[in-house]
Amino acid sequence: MADTVEQWYAFYTKPRAEKKAASDMSKAGITYYLPLHKVMRQWSDRRKEVEVPLFTSYIFVHIDPVYRMTVLQSPSIARSVTFRGEMAPVRDIEIEAIKRYLSEDDILSIEEIDNIEVGDEVEITRGPLKGIFGKVGLWKGKHKVVVEIECVNQKIALTIAGNQLKGVH
Question: Global pTM?
């Protein structure tokens, strides 16, 4: 029996169908990850905290690429994320970093950073996002590290303590 080559892959969901896609993957026995975070929503009669996808219209699935069609048969899945015609794998470290980030209760504000300026590439050396690379940017008047998951072309802007960063040269 040959070894499987299971990896994480990103799939586009149909609009507002991320949770349905997760349900479909669960029913099919497919390992998936749908990162959710809580936000406060206002309706005309009430405010409520709800869980929404961190990445709109994306779900991560852990499969061997030969089973791609099984995922695509779900009515909630639009297509796979590809790069140069091939399914684009998502590194385990990126999935784990998203999980750690979402499990953190408080995000530290940036501290004084020696020899690092806006626009510099940095590596996060400690904390829940250890091992992830990003870029120091200016956002809403505060320095933030923008972490980009390349295969889904999405960015997460978050505040990281300066002692958790090192410049990448």
Answer: 0.74
